[in-house]
Amino acid sequence: MTTFDHVSLVFLVRPADAPAVSDEEATALQDAHLAHQAALAERGLVLAAGPLVDQDDERLRGICVLSVDAERARALYADDPAVRARRLAVQVATWMVPTGGAVFPGVRLPASTAEALG
């Protein structure tokens, strides 16, 4: 019998009513969002995260894999600056993965846009 690990998937979604912001504000919010995620990763809560490209639904902006239950994932991302600013919304699901299948060794998340663009 297969056993399963449970991890949380956080889907970051652009709401239809996301407020318009200047390019400078968007960059500052993105930097704050990345710093928030990097801090969660340093605590071992975010296993992997990244933006989406070539997605069928342009509202889907990114995915995060967390080592916590869905309720805790929602709480952690409620504190994300981009979520608080309503530029992103959060959808959470529990992903059942065969035991040991959700391993992302050595993944380090960028803490700013400049670092991400490298």
From TrEMBL:
Coiled coil: none annotated. InterPro entries: Dimeric_a/b-barrel (IPR011008), YCII (IPR005545). SUPFAM superfamilies: Dimeric alpha+beta barrel. It comes from the Bacteria. Residues 17-86 form the YCII-related domain. Belongs to the YciI family. This is YCII-related domain-containing protein. It comes from Virgisporangium ochraceum.
